[in-house]
Amino acid sequence: MTFRLIAENRKARFNYEIIEKIEAGIVLQGTEVKSIRAGKMTLADSYAVVNREELYWLNGQIAHYEHGNIHNHEPFRSRKLLLRHKEISRLIGLVKEKGLSIIPLRAYWKGSKVKLELGIAKGKKLYDKRATTKERDWQREKQRILKTNH
Length: 150
Hints:
- The protein is of the alpha+beta class.
- Helices cover 35% and strands 37% of the residues.
- Strand 8 (101-110) and strand 9 form a beta hairpin.
- Belongs to the SmpB family.
């Protein structure tokens, strides 16, 4: 089975501490699939919520299909995510008890299906973000020093 990356939420790893990852399918309309094939999907600032024992992806953008007609889809509509009932029940427990968030990390093709990799995440504090930036800068500096010495 081949995996082809469609979009990635790069800010998610900076703003959140990812505790666990889950793969979910998405219910899409025809023009949405065509727009995704054209690379017009954005995961930034989107999240997933549980509503009546179902999981929905909110605030994710799939741009209008250029060659669509009057029946083109809404770019920011809520989209149902497909998971097993047992997984959804576990997510409900994690979100309610521990105050965690469900955020999309990546979107990719798995065969002919579009999948979302969801992260169960805890928001980072400002000092955690600073520490992450400091560590990343140190790693870059270390690599630069090692490169110049060889």
